[in-house]
Amino acid sequence: MGLTTLLFVVLIGTSTTSGGMCCAGKDDCLARNFGHGSVVCECNASHCDSVGSVKLPPVGQFLSFLSSKAGSRLVRGQGTVLQNSTGAALRLTIVPYQKYQRIKGFGGAMTDAAAINILSLSGGTQDQLLRQYFAPEGIAYSVVRVPMASCDFSTRLYTYADSAGDYSLTNFTLSAEDTEMKIPLIQKAQAMSPQPLSLLASAWSAPAWMKTSGALIGKGTLKGHPGGKEYKTWAHYYVRFLEEYRKFNLSFWAVTTGNEPSAGQMTNYSFQALGFTPETQRDWVIMDLGPALHASPFADTRVIILDDNRLLLPHWAKVVLSDVRAARYIHGIGVHWYLNKLVPAELSLGTTHHVFPEYFLFGTEACAGWSPLDRGVKLGSWERAEDYAHDIIEDLNHYVTGWTDWNLALDLGGGPNWVKNFVDSPIIVDEKKDVFYKQPTFYSLAHFSKFLLEGSLRVGVSSSKASALESSAFIRPDGAVVLVILNRSEEHIPFEIWYPEVGFIPMDAAARSILTVVWATQ
């Protein structure tokens, strides 16, 4: 068989224009059904499904990638762009002159729990898991959130400066969780990644001796007031953290002003927190954190405020960013997805962007299984994949520049978590079998992270009529157009995509599916 013929057979065998499952092979999903509505894909040291490297087709052709409740997982399709309309009742028109925000990236958090679970696997399976997220054949994660010391997804309570009264931070020391678990795994991920990873640091609590409560957990703030010794020491703590990680050749793209500052103002809050009001956060940035970073070797590290639920917007941003003394040190606003249903995206994200367009919005945390009504791990839940895709599309369509998932990996129980705050994760590890399961949420994220390169520009999409489809469109730095479509309905929906410079793309959105379509324009 000649090389040309062989390539033709391979392409036909692994591609489809109808979105059906492709042939059996080493890159296919080993599906497992645990009774939660759809399947997971099982992986071990020697086998894991992969979409592989995606090469842009020539002008006049398109690629599509389909995941569905029925069991498709990034199934590749290929077809020809038409010069005439198909006559479909529904048309999505790309509007390239409507230009919005640029994409930073997508990723997840290397918590203590994530590191424990990854390291519980054999060396070969560990590498396989990291490749799924970070290697070229994986889903191109470019952001890793790193907790500064412990959070609830740890097995113990600690900070890096637990010696009472150590205002000079003489005894500041990274934990074994950092040096023996998180840092080696981040270094491995970086070695696999074709681009530098953007590390994002968030602290849950200051040392107990700095706080009004004298405890890491529950309601409590820093003692004193911004400009005072506790606030200055807390700012210095950030610089020391960056210094220690730099010794391992890891530099941070950004730090947040602290995870969920509203939690530290709640009575009976059950795990690590540090309370700030927008006013005290503003003044701490003005007097302490901003000057400390500016005077350090980390002056280029981005500062992201809020790092909390978007329902606090636009008020929080207005308080902090309306003061030019704080605003000059700040670059972005971090949002969590919890309680999003309580406030419309346009009212929170949209208003914030329109008032402060020079500051980027960035999704810093999300997870499924957090609600008391729908708690913990559900292997194969397609509804959770749809929740992810819906939230990402809604965020992107309201000026958010990236989206960070929570734990990169959890165990079958949704932990470990010292306070038993068990949730779900896109990858679930079964240590006893030395396997891991890629949840539908993994593929939901992949439909964005794999195809939206850093620097991709969101552009307009108009629909010829109302439909169940949700969508967001982008032009990448390489000139390719990416359209991501979510169909949460039970109906198969035929439609066409029109990009005026190229032509018409005939397409189908399967019932309960996520679809990414990619094509070249030059």
Structure description:
The chain has 522 residues and is α/β, with parallel strands linked by helices. It has two domains: 141 residues, Immunoglobulin-like; 346 residues, Glycosidases (TIM Barrel), CATH 3.20.20.80. The protein contains eleven helices and 22 strands. The strands form three sheets. A nine-stranded mixed β-sheet has the order 4-3-22-19-18-17-5-20-21, covered by helices on one side. An eight-stranded parallel β-barrel has the order 6-7-8-9-10-11-12-13, surrounded by six helices. Helix 3 packs across helix 4, helix 5 packs across helix 6 and helix 6 packs across helix 7. The radius of gyration is 23 Å and the shape is globular. The two termini are 34 Å apart. The N terminus is likely disordered.
Main features:
522 residues, alpha/beta, Immunoglobulin-like, TIM Barrel, 2 domains, nine-stranded mixed sheet, eight-stranded parallel β-barrel, 22 strands, 25% helix
Concise summary:
With 522 residues, the protein is an alpha/beta fold.
| Distance separating the two termini | 34 Å
What is the number of helices?
A: 11
Q: In the CATH hierarchy, what is the architecture of the largest domain at level 2?
A: Alpha-Beta Barrel
> Strands of the biggest beta sheet: in what spatial order?
4-3-22-19-18-17-5-20-21
Q: What is the number of independent domains? A: 2
Mean pLDDT: 94
List segments where confidence is low: pLDDT < 50 over at least 5 consecutive residues.
Answer: 1-24
Amount of beta strand: 25-35%
* Large-scale geometry: globular
Radius of gyration from CA coordinates: 23 Å
Largest sheet: 9 strands, mixed
Percentage of helical residues? Answer: 25-40%
Give me the CATH fold name of the largest domain: TIM Barrel
How many β-strands, per DSSP?
22
CATH class of the largest domain: Alpha Beta
User: In CATH, what is the homologous superfamily of the largest domain?
Assistant: Glycosidases
What structural class do you assign from the helix and strand content? alpha/beta
Main location: membrane
Domain Glycosyl hydrolase family 30 beta sandwich: 455-517
Signal peptide: 1-19
Enzyme class: hydrolase
